[in-house]
Amino acid sequence: MAEQAFALTYDCFDKDQDDEGTEQTEKFLNAENLYQRAIKTGNGIIEQREKMTWSFFKAFNNKMILSRYIYLSVHRYSEEVKDKIITNLDKSIAGFTDVLHQEPTPLYKAQALVYVNCVMSRTEYSVEHMRIPGLQRDIARFKEQVSALLQEEGSVKHAIELAKDNHRVLNTMARALKGTDFEEAEDTIRMSLEAESNPNINWYGYLLNGELALERYKRTCTTIQSKRDPDNVEVLKRSISDLTTCVEGMKSSRNYSLLGEAFMKLALSESCTSLHTDDGRETEVYKHLVQALIYFNEALTKDRGARDPKVHGFRSECLERLKEDKMAIESWKRAVELDRLSTTYWGNIKSLLLMLLNQCRKMSDSEDFQPVVAETATYLKLALCKHETVYDKFMPALIEQFPEQFLHAANYFTITNDLTMAMRLWDCVDQTIGQRPLSQEIEERRRRVKKDIEDSQEALANIDVQEPRSSDHEQTADSNPREEGATGCEELEERFPATDEQKAFMPLPVVKARNTRGFHYDFFVIHSAKDEEWVNYTLLANLEGEHRLKGCIADRDFELGKYVVDNITAAIEESAKVLVILTPDMVQSKWCKHEMKNALHAKVEEGSETVIPVLLKDCEVPDEIKNITYLDARRHFDWDHLLRDIKK
Predict the structure, then answer these.
(1) 487-524 pLDDT, tens per residue?
(2) Same domain, 17 and 149
(3) Is residue 614 within a helix (H) or strand (E), and if so which, with residue range?
């Protein structure tokens, strides 16, 4: 049982977290029960040293549960969460105290002393800085208890001295101390590297030393002048040296990402901010940024790097500084897709929207302008719908900076019949700007957009009055009449193609396919019209925009005047691969099912793997493709995997 509990505890370190860490918390709670049963069952049977070991890991497990509930209190505070914090703080302190009273080995004693001190310090810090109400009295009581224990058993310095020859234990202690006693953590890591300097053995020691140096640089450098101070730059170079040594011993995503971050900071420390000199030579800034990008790209290829929004965020920032705007936008999209934490999500979506809105402003006279507006509008909608806190954090500031671009986005939603979102964006602009004067051109656009929204609402209301629908096909004023099926409506003989105005917002097609087998398109997309914004401005933006693959979508690429069924057949025959985007709307669409059956028939005829199902949202996978391996994109979209299969 103890072994099962140990496995559950450490399994959590290898899994993705959901918004509140509920899955991991459940595992920690299960582990706690197993530890309790193991200790109770083994009492009087197992040796004292083994019992002490189990007690230590039970206390460590309670420490992890405590961390989860402190984190949860930031997002959803309640009396129940408060009680859980008190309970697990009590269990953690009592558990490590019990270990110290069982005559532990020097190494276990050292770790117990450090952990009990860190548990207390971190909880106290959280209560003070996160403003968790109602805990101050309990914290004071526990603090007295821990102080008495440390006086009795020995200080943190005594603990470090006990473990001075064991680099692994010193690393563990330094990691625990990092958040509560920075200088002590630095001293502990120095002892670890003195005990073992081989990076193949003690790579983690070099990682922590480099990480601490990078953290010291960030804490010290709050102004441009301080970033360029020679002493601070030397700290940064020391961080790069240690992290480079660390990578020699362990090539992991985290290690490469930290090294990339350090090089990006080094680029910002240069007095010259230009990427090239007047005569075209590369500056040190450019060289450092390119080196940082190499490390971020490498991080994406290791362990869980491709699933880490932080890596994508750092890479995006680096690309932005290198003025690779289109690539930076796509990288920010990956960060937004992957980030499920409300505390960090808003920073990623803000950076993405800022780049998209800037792109709108720059491209107002370009033929790409309307597709860029649609792309921007799509992510504005995502930002406003995913987390309620997003609007207050940064949206008014963006509206102040880009009022005209917000009005363009509202106009896009009017044209595509998403009148609820059109009105919401217009209201956002109206509330933020108020009666303040804008340029005559923007004021005119503001009035025109409002009138277009009202006219569209009135037109849809009149249609509903004149042609009442049955309850099975009831539509609201802001619904899209094209939302039944991949290319049209529920019935095969009826179809609502995109209007010319709507087509103008679609991504511009790639001129030439990249496949070497003579197909006119690299891929054809079967999808519900309700998923078209994701298809047009996430899927196509990546596959066509960044990777220059030539795609085929119905409203943009089908030949006018041709029977729909013939267009579908031709698209499948002329495409190297067929992507089936699986969502609840797609599997209910007769058009989608028809397209999918045609694609499967073509697959059998060709004897090749041409159909790639992509499970985008939870739904019942159709029987026709249940035996085909699909890409599960519900939590993480593996773009590299999809690209490999399309190019295969």
Answers:
(1) 433 444 444 567 888 888 889 999 999 999 999 999 99
(2) yes
(3) strand 611-615
